[in-house]
């Protein structure tokens, strides 16, 4: 981790803008043009872009640039600063009656670095390991976790409790209504259990890094050593830099550096064993309520129907074993043709491992390590399908590296802050048509309906629907980013934000803003026979041939109209010109 520089660190989880930043003016529309405006702080709250129950209003572009040029301390540097300031206190702490591992988004035993370190300390001092999980309804709301993601987490906690119990390791779980109370509660539990050492894996979002920095100091004052461990990335953020010493903001050169680093440091792909069992007699030594702890219920605003629970359990079975079985099956079969088939939506050509990676049921290290082994122990070359899949898993690392170095993307801003100035639309009826799959563009509608039914979407249509929302409809991409998080079972901030940055041309992708996906051409190319559309848009199942891609302009108007399928809500060609003009004005 880089040495922290003495710079100013903001005090809040998100940054307050300078005075006057909230007062943005509404533009008067030209004749024949749809009304548009720059949203005020009140409107950003109204449309759900800024959650004012938790965060300040939208920050300014100037403060974004202050993070970029190093004037403001990044959260990762705040964390390092906390370590440096408490190193003497932490060094003097000796293990006491127990060691604690705090589970967060790492719900697995195998290849869990913080868990293994906690186990090692416990084994060396012949004291029990206690595992902890705290459910925070406020965190789930603030971070826009979908009910499907919450259900998946709770199902995996049940499996985790069982497999830990077989090793005589308790998993204590509870709900904390107030997210700000979590650090204090952790200290209280450690004191109650006689634990002077607590381990946890790092999460790289702004709130979590700053919480951990505060927790390091708080624990040190109480004689507790808190260790936050790099685990979620194959290559630790900050480890890769260009020859000029800069962090990469473009994937291709970053990926070359990532592969080179792993070849030179193969230990980064070593998969760590699951923790050892607790010492004999641990169950008698520890309080009975630790082993009797139950998985918390889902908060009322994050619950699923019985039918949804059953469906998602079938689609995404819980547990490490399920994840590893799915991984191995993919590597043995579809993975080898992944390069050729990955974009075709009607095929089951992708691994669908993203829910397991997002919840930490499967580590990215394990995924890449096994894929490399299947690929003749190579990251690139050998089998094109497996090499391509490894490069796709690497995107997950890349987006976390970007998040750590440019933390303002966690604050309702895009990587290119100047595109915040695009004159976005905020028409509710149009947004609802997009979110419900009623745009009149069959591929877009099929994808959005798949999302609602499966809590998941194939990557190719993710790109298409994000481009369609931001550029065809010119609706603020942050509304789409939020909608995805609130519905995806694999909702993951860094990857989701990166995907929306790509689709809206506001992110790290170097392709200029004038790349605008044509949903009809995308449909013709990647759903050639229309099977994906027919599956998710039943109104069009009787449409034959190429008309499925654009029924109202290819002779299938009668069938589409009879079945109640809507006409296109915008003309793509006209919308493209409008988007180009808006983006260009934003840059000026």
UniProtKB/TrEMBL annotation:
Its cofactor is (6R)-5,10-methylene-5,6,7,8-tetrahydrofolate; FAD. It comes from Penicilliopsis zonata CBS 506.65. GO terms for molecular function: deoxyribodipyrimidine photo-lyase activity; DNA binding; FAD binding. The keyword Cell wall biogenesis/degradation does not apply. The record marks 424, 477, 500 as: Electron transfer via tryptophanyl radical. Residues 97-234 form the Photolyase/cryptochrome alpha/beta domain. Belongs to the DNA photolyase class-1 family. This is Photolyase/cryptochrome alpha/beta domain-containing protein. One of its GO terms (biological process) is entrainment of circadian clock by photoperiod. Residues 21-30 have a biased composition (Polar residues).
